[in-house]
Amino acid sequence: MTQHLTSHWDFERPLHASDHHACIIQVNSQEGQHLVEITGIKTQQSKYAIYYALFYILIVFLCLTLVCLPSGENNSCCSCENGYAWPSAVCSDLITCPSVSLALDLPCSYMMEMPFYGPYCEPQTEEPIVMNMSVRLDRGFVDDLRNSSSEFYKKYKADLEKAFNASYRCLPGFVSATVTGFRMLLFVFSDQTNFTVSPVDIFEGDTVRLICEINSTSENVTWYHFDQIISPSFHYSMERKFSRGTSRSILKIVNVTMKDSGSYRCTFTMSKHLTTWIYKATKIIAVSPLYITPNLNDINVTCNSPEMQTNSPLLSCCIDRHLPSLTGDWKVNGAINITGVPSFSENCTEYKLKIDESLCPPEKSGTVTTYTCKLQTGHGARRSQNINVTYLRTANVTISSSTNSSVSEGHPFSLMCESDVSNYDSISWKIQSGNNTKTVDCGTCIKNSKFPATSVLTVKTATQDWNGTYICTFSQKHLESSANVTLKVISLPLKSNILIDPITASIQCKVQQTLECCISANTTEDYTVTFVVQQNEFQVEQQLKAYCKFINHIEQEVKSEDITLHLILAQEVSCSTSFGIGKEGATLIKPCRGLNISDGFIRGNVIYKCSNKSWKIARNDCLSESINNLMTSAESLVKSPEAKANLPNYLAELKEKTRKEQNNISHSPANLGAIVTILDMVSSIPADAEEVTIQVSFILSLTYSYQKPTSSLLLDSVENFTRHLQPVNNTIPPVSANSLQLQGRVVTENNYTDYNKNFSSTENLTVNVFIGESEIQTLTQNSTIVSVMYSKLAHILPWNEPECVNGLLITTTVSSNRSQKFNINMTFTKKDSSLKMAQCVFWNFTLNKGGGGWDTRGCIATEVEDYVICSCNHLTPFSILMSPDKSSQVIFEDYITYIGLVISILSLVVCIIIESLVWKYVTNNTTSYMRHVCILNIATSLLIADIWFIVTASINDQNQQMSRGICFVATFFIHLFYLCVFFWMLSLGLILFYRLIFILHNTSKTTQKAVAFCLGYGCPFVIAVITMAVTLPRNNYTRRDVCWLNWKDSKALLAFVIPALIIVAINLFITAVVIIKILRPTIGDRSNRQEKNSLFQIGKSVAILTPLLGLTWGFGLATVIKNSHRAFHILFAMFNALQGLFILVFGSLWDKKIQEALLKRNSMSKWSSQQTKILEGFSPIHREFLWPIDSCIPPCIEA
């Protein structure tokens, strides 16, 4: 049986000096003799902590198989063989054999008495047990002992292992001893340091002092915070003090924070005589925030309240514990400087306010004064707390009326409420009538202003709902200031509620005619009713106007609608019944009367026509009973002080009744018109964007069959609804019902992102509305943006054939009042992809005398496959108009234009070639040179303009989408070079005028050429640039369908027409001067034959110049006229398309000098001879200068 014993010596355990014992062993080594002390370390706590610089020894104990040798009388020296060991239970009782024993060379030999009865060695079956030990070497530590590969380390290790193995070899169970390492000897004292902290209660901001003191002298002090060494800084500072036998270190922490909490350790280190002493101590500090608790947070104080002046508020700030060194202070900051009396008690500071009404004027009511209490500990921690006091003042409110104490029904009145306190939060109006109190909530009838503080209640039509005592209340925080006035509404029928019978009728002279004026009113008012008949003296036929007038007791009156009476003769009477009389074809209009109506009549009228001596109904415009009641309720609603609150209930009723009357409404124009009128009336009432929209969408579905002339009113009504929608919980709930979808957003302080909404219809048509962030940021806070999509409403709005609405209708409204431009982008899906020429249009309610119409101003259309992108700079109802593709419908004018352009371009090329060939032959003098310079530039300018025009025309004819940028560039150059043609013709005319009139005056060629080029290219360029700069920003520079100057919107075409007409007029004047000059006889230079030839040439000149200069543009102006005759278009296209041919024939080929030059180059003498005979009739001057000053207008471009 083998038992293993384990013993462990821990080198870091404290050992009392008197308790440790050691076995001193002589160790011989090459370095000299050293004492090795084997120390047993006890576990009890001691005053001194001894850390040894030790090496480790590995000792193995085993008991071996029994082998005995005689050793004296009755004794034997026994030991165990290999693989066996003494039983562990008896190892401690064995006696070692003496050194002189025969068994000296045997390991673990012990004396056994003979005879031997045990114990016996047992087989060793387990691994030896390793035990760690440490011993102290009485010498200084050498760094080489840290390096296990150094020679010094190896020598020490070998000598110590040899000494231990030799000394312990006979110990029971010992196997071997191994040195594992060396370390330095330290003495650590943890209870010899005096560690104090000041202050005991530490708050954020305090200056904390940590003091460590030992009864020894040590200059090496280190401070630790969570085992991190603290270095001196602005936050940490260290101070050391030494005295006889003591050392002190002070760590000061300035403005301590919560992060400075935790464990702090100070360490004093002292080394002497190969030994190091360490004194250390640890403290944990806790930093607490200095919490201040005010007795009040934010309070409201009424300055002119007697109670508040006698019992002023007490402000106080306290902390949660008592600090002897705590101090407090108060600071006042605000426009109202009301101070108080400070005091201090234990852990609180108090401030008693002294309220003074004179320090709180009305204009400063609502001002916030901040009272700051500051508490400071004696060690630097300080905290402050603000208490906000809002000083209010009871306002002096007055109320006045535009009338006396009474007003009649149907008449307007206004009330003004004024307050001396302008900084109010809200104003409310209430009407108290008996025990009933109503809050006035009528939308736009109340206008409030801040400076001065006023509120004006304006009532356009007084009803009995406005009767009572009006209470106007200015609210500021919790304080309310009011004034009241009593207003009595006197009964008087409304004009619309007075029934007249008849409305239009015929009467005979001297025959009595019954006229009726009826009202329905629940009143005790005694009206004075009079009838007034008026006669129009300027009527050929006798016609009378009559009306009735109701006057109440306060002398206010109301007039009925006019009754029209036609005077007829007795012999003219054809129809005569109880309804009335009339001649054949006459009209009789009677009011509608219903037997089931409580008041006996309903709205509308019946038109009778006299036919075959009897009255027959021509048209019945009477409303149904339910629609009549709805109309009456709507009129009462919009005139009610509680219009906004009652609107949802009314719309629910309107929806329910229109559903029941759907068939009657859809087949009755009068009922449909009444529904539209009702929507128009109630659309001005603000409503929550929720159920209201759904109800309106259903009502709209009933009106889609309504007649187009009044559909504009329907659209305007719905747009008014969206403009007055009120957010629900600061949002616009989305609505999708029937043919209407609504989405929107409220602009808040943190929500200035892009506005991007998508809509889709049941027909898979879509529209996207996008407003950029830059535009959103221009809106005021709490503004609403609401977009409504209509899938059917656009189709009942009128348009001009062949254009049609090819997408959805979208309206976007903003609640903020905006006068400047507002950029919005919309992307529409085409309903019919075969339609072309997309226009982005909006519904302009002001067109057609208020009837409305589609307008394109302020919008740019861009087609991308099946979509049309509209970029507009305003907010209105938008859609797209498109036309059928006319590419295959090439009209006769187009053929003329294209054929003429080809001829013109070829002619101009030939003209330029001819001029280049004969240039040196025909420019031998200044006049001829300038003439041909003008001709060459005219031909070049017209050629460039024609090329630009034919390129853009071919792109359009091939149905290719041309970008707006390319179209702008093409229009600019076409405009520029056509103007150049005109101005070069003007230059030519001026040269002709100059040479004929100023014969004796001569100007250099360079000067003439400079003036001609400035006039020919400079003036056109200036005009073209100004035209583009003025019209392009407004998106009306070009036309929608062709790349040419706009006429309909901006009249940009005038930038071409006016210069052209002026030049035509100037050239006509020059022509007249030339003719007069030629006809004016001079002495001896002209015969009769010459005069005849001159007259002939004048006739030819007029025949050439007049069509080219006058008729061409005259025909062009005729095409501007709406519905002009087609002949003007054909003539205009013909004359303009052949401009190049005219220049070739009359500018080059008809010039004799050019002919002669060509003959010289080609040796065509015969041809030259014939042409010379033809032109013999021209005078030399005429042959030199005669050439038609042509005009040029874009071929086949209608104005």
Automatic annotation (TrEMBL):
Lipid bilayer topology: Multi-pass membrane protein
Signal peptide residue numbers: none
Keywords assigned by UniProt, alphabetized: Disulfide bond, Glycoprotein, Membrane, Signal, Transmembrane, Transmembrane helix
One Gene Ontology CC term in the entry: membrane
G-protein coupled receptors family 2 profile domain residues: 893-1151
InterPro entries: ADGRF3/5_N, Adhesion_GPCR, GAIN_B, GAIN_dom_sf, GPCR_2-like_7TM, GPCR_2_Ig-hepta-like_rcpt, GPCR_2_secretin-like, GPS
Pfam family, one: ADGRF3_N
BP GO annotations: adenylate cyclase-activating G protein-coupled receptor signaling pathway; cell surface receptor signaling pathway; energy reserve metabolic process; fat cell differentiation; regulation of lipid metabolic process
Positions of the GAIN-B domain: 727-888
Keyword Disulfide bond: yes
Compartments in which it is found: Membrane
PANTHER family in the record: ADHESION G PROTEIN-COUPLED RECEPTOR F5, IG-LIKE DOMAIN-CONTAINING PROTEIN
Protein name: Adhesion G protein-coupled receptor F5
Source species: Bubo bubo
